[in-house]
What does this fold into?
Amino acid sequence: MNDAHHSSSPQDRDLQPPERFKDKQVHHLERDQLVAETSRPVPRAALSARTAAGLWALRVFAVLVSLMVIYTFIAQLH
Amino acid sequence: MTVTPSFPAGDIPPSEPPLTEEDTARSRDRSRVHRARGHSRRWLLLWLLAGPGILAMLGENDGPSMIAYAADGAQYGLGFFVPLIPVLFAMAFICQEMCMRVGAVTHRGYGGLVLQRYGRVWGWFGAGDLTLTNLVTLVAEFVSIRVGLAYFHLSSGVAVALGLVLVVFTLSGGRYWRWERIVLGLALFNGLFLLAAILVRPHAGAVVSSVDFMSFPGGSFNTLLLLLASTVGATVTPWMIFFQQSASADKGMTARDIKHGRYDTAAGAALAAIFGVGALIAGAALLTHHGPGIQGFTGAGFPEALTHVAGSAVGTVFALGLIEAGAVAILTICASTAYAAGECAGVSRSFNRSPRNAAVFYAANIGVALLAAVVILIPGAPLLSIALNANVLATVLLPVSLVFMVMLANDTALMGPWANKRSTNAIGITVIAFVGLCGAAYGIDSFLQVTHLIGP
It folds into this structure.
């Protein structure tokens, strides 16, 4: 569950906390609230193999159970 | 937000980024927050920062949920469900607080953040889940409005027109603040279910003495699973996750507002639990009056049955409550779809933009409502089955969305000091496991019965 932040990108790690948490106000908004800032994508997190496998297992499970619910729904119509 | 956005090699971020109409509108809203905070006007600050939490929670007290609570009361009485509903809303608070916090700290919606942080595949899977469950749920919302209107001898066409007019009306104006305040005003009428409960004049002592968490409802194992899955699906759903995070960002909330965001979410959970129990108590008035036989989604359903047993005032209040519950849910669910569409397409997604500058956002908002409305008008469409299964499907698909929510809330690169604590993670994972088990157990058990692999 916590692998995402343990495996953050080098770009994340290079940032020093005091610099990263400093807010600058533009009018009444924080700088990173501006559309120009939120339009830029955040860096991709590197998921560990275990996390990725867990997510895929959960996804496959959810799809299978959803198909069962949909099948049951259709069968009950007849 | 704490992660620096990625710039193409060689590019230097501009020192003063250009302001859009969205920034200007949001800045205007934030100036009032700054003034209220500066003058220590606590109640004004609370009023200004309330919204996404109450809307997510009362939006989930939708038509199908209130019919499900009334049906639980009519079939099984109060015993098991009066304590269950507050517990489920406490679970919902845990999930929704994370959404609010991530939205306030990152200023980004759930769909866009999952897509950018964990990859397009996961982003689009999430958006697909949301679209499917939202479409099915929206059909159920129109059905519940139709049930409420049927009490006043009005047709499906009126239900469709009412829903669509409300969506278009709330979208006009091009301001998040305006949209939020209109929907909040409507959402407070969810209290009609509490009024219905008071009007059936339950004996307070009898209500308290009937409460027993260990008195599991009778009936088959499958029925119990359906009840659990649909009741869980009536309290936490994928659209709430998308909605509250995106709405918190669109409202302009920041990390300084997290405390008030918690108040907002807690107030929403408390109100939703009280009003949900209200619907349950009103439904329980039918327990000894053929309650289990009432079809909540056909004809005038519960309002008509309540009129015969408790008087026309109760029936009228319950019918109006169903119309309100369906209408508010249509508005919030359409908004969650629109946010997700804009975030996944990487285009403007804000109520603070004009339709010309956020075409995808507005088109998705109206389009999904229109699509559900068309299903309602198809002659012979299996609306009853759709309405009954809407909550179950949401419960089955919810754990995946919740896992990503917990991952985002734990992402210290994004969240900095506002990342989840261990205790929040422990509770969050327990909630995910419970929701996953309820949905999966019902789905698998029903499938095995339909395919005759096990007996009923």
User: Anything to note?
Assistant: Chain B touches chain A through 70 residues (CB under 8 Å). DSSP finds 20 helices and no strands in chain B. Residues 312-345 of chain B form the longest helix (34 residues).
